[in-house]
């Protein structure tokens, strides 16, 4: 084959690949990403009822990058597991060709690392560009990316180059039709396979009507599939959902709240009673050893119309998988399944509970270990950190669940590097004031070797440095630094040998881009 001919063949193969990737998102009904709700049992049930693709809940890049990939022979799943043993993302063969991994990110390099970590276990990768919550926005993620088209472009372009699976993003409407179209086209030019469009503005609440006309207008002459989203208030079953999708003119539909309310919305034959859906869900949660806190949360959503029924009350009062199963009359299924799982675990010599030689690693970083100890003392940790069973009212301040803490590796403050410079706490205070956030809250803990480690809460999020400090003051500053780095407010590097730290303010709303560097003799 001559050079030109082989080039033509390669181009043809590439074109076929691109087309195949796009086809994955054409004429499809999908389960939309939903934090907490979008775990494995929900996704599998949606698929069994007829969904073509299912999105996982958004997982922030920092969090998944701390996980190891573990093949779990007991459940026949692939688990992405934190050093503490927490399963952050669990998937299995049944959904492998149909599950989309959604990440929260504000950084092309981290996005690529995440994509490479999960790409062999999923059917596609999605970037959340629609989340308007403070947690996302302040970290430069979610809907913040709609105002940073260059960064959004860099993230999507890096991803499409780096991985073989299709890459997509999920956005919201921008303030004008032109702005939405221009953003969508920019994303299209990165080579993404499709784009999800939630027909509300970043500022709009979920209860407000979706802007159908604006959606239709924005689709314009896009040549990649556009996935409509946001219509859950307007449909309750498959045929209504399909009709709504057709009104938008989009190629596919992504459903969140209507599915949360009744996962059988994907059934072409019509929806099933909530109780039947919840029972099927319970069986899957049991089979896949889903965390009890998450299972209870999902059941309460799935039973939203029967919360005052006997079943609803039993679910509300349950604290264990056994109690949840009993509420559905599934006690013998519980006994059989858990016995089989225990036997399989013994046979494979497999356990997610850390063995003795892994115990230090499994305890996680010093701050995670300390927080876990405190929760264990209270007996309030339920495995997925929702604290639903906890008696929050009895405490002055709720305990911090170690799983909720974002740990930042290089957040290490040395006082001598910051002489005559603004400290991280000063930068953080400017930041919270500028964005009208409550002042950051700090909690200091002492390790057994008498060093200090501190958490820093900003809004709903908690940050901590990986390493303890030798003084309380340095621990506080390191925690502030962790928050600033994680939220994309500053970039930071520290050269211990050279006794030098470099802190660069990235957020131009705070002050003109400044670099403060200090070196001490
Ligand atoms: C409980 C819940 C959690 C959500 N979590 C996410 C998420 O993790 N990522 C995301 O892109 N959107 C998330 N969303 C937004 C939905 O995916 C969707 O865009 C929105 O609910 C509008 O669609 P709907 O009308 O079908 O509900 C969430 C929505 C709900 C109700």
TrEMBL record:
Region (Disordered): 373-402
Keywords assigned by UniProt, alphabetized: Flavoprotein, FMN, Oxidoreductase, RNA-binding, tRNA processing
Coiled coil: none
Name of the protein in question: tRNA-dihydrouridine synthase
One cellular-component annotation, GO: cytoplasm
Superkingdom as given in the UniProt entry: Eukaryota
Cofactor or coenzyme needed: FMN
GO molecular function: flavin adenine dinucleotide binding; RNA binding; tRNA dihydrouridine synthase activity
Basic and acidic residues composition bias: residue spans: 373-383, 392-402
Signal peptide extent: none
Domain spans labelled DRBM: 423-484
């Amino acid at each position: 084959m001559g050079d030109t001919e082989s080039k033509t063949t390669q181009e043809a193969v590439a074109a076929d690949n691109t087309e195949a990737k796009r086809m994955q998102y054409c004429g499809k009904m999908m389960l939309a990403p939903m934090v907490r709700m979008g775990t494995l049992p929900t996704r599998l049930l949606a698929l069994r009822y007829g969904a073509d693709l299912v999105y996982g809940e958004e997982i922030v890049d920092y969090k998944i990058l701390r996980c190891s990939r573990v093949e779990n022979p007991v459940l026949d799943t692939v688990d992405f597991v934190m050093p503490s043993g927490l399963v952050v993302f669990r998937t299995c063969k049944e959904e492998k060709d149909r599950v989309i991994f959604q990440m929260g990110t504000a950084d092309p390099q981290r996005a690529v690392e995440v994509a490479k970590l999960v790409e062999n276990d999923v059917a596609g990768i999605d970037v959340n560009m629609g989340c308007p919550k403070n947690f996302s926005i302040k970290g430069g993620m979610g809907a913040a990316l709609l105002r940073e088209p260059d960064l959004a472009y860099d993230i999507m372009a890096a991803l499409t180059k780096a991985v073989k699976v299709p890459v997509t993003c999920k956005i919201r409407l921008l303030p004008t039709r032109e702005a939405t179209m221009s953003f969508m086209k920019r994303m299209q030019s990165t080579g993404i396979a499709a784009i999800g469009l939630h027909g509300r503005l970043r500022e709009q609440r979920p209860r407000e009507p979706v802007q159908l006309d604006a959606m239709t207008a924005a689709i314009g002459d896009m040549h990649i599939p556009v996935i409509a989203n946001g219509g859950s208030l307007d449909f309750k079953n498959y045929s209504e959902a399909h009709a709504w999708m057709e009104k938008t003119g989009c190629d596919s539909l992504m459903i969140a709240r209507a599915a949360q309310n009744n996962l059988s919305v994907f059934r072409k034959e019509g929806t099933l009673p909530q109780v039947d859906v919840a029972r099927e869900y319970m069986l899957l949660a049991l089979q896949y050893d889903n965390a009890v806190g998450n299972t209870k949360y999902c059941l309460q959503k799935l039973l939203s119309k029967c919360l005052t029924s006997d079943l609803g009350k039993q679910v509300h009062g349950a604290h264990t998988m056994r109690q949840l199963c009993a509420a559905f009359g599934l006690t013998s299924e519980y006994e059989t399944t858990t016995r089989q799982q225990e036997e399989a675990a013994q046979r494979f010599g497999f356990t997610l509970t850390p063995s003795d030689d892994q115990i230090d690693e499994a305890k996680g970083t010093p701050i995670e270990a300390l927080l876990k100890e405190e929760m264990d003392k209270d007996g309030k940790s339920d495995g997925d950190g929702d604290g639903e069973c906890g008696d929050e009212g009895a405490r002055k301040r709720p305990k911090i669940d170690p799983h909720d803490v974002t740990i930042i590796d290089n957040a290490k403050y040395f006082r001598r590097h910051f002489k005559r410079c603004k400290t991280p706490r000063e930068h953080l205070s400017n930041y919270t004031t500028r964005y009208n956030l409550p002042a950051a809250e700090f909690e200091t803990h002492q390790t057994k070797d008498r060093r200090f480690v501190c958490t820093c809460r900003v809004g709903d999020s908690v940050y901590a440095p990986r390493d303890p400090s030798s003084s309380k003051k340095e621990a506080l500053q390191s925690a502030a630094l962790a928050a600033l780095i994680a939220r994309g407010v500053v970039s930071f590097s520290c050269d211990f040998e050279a006794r030098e730290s470099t802190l660069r303010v990235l957020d131009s709303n705070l002050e003109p881009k400044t670099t403060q560097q200090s070196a001490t003799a």
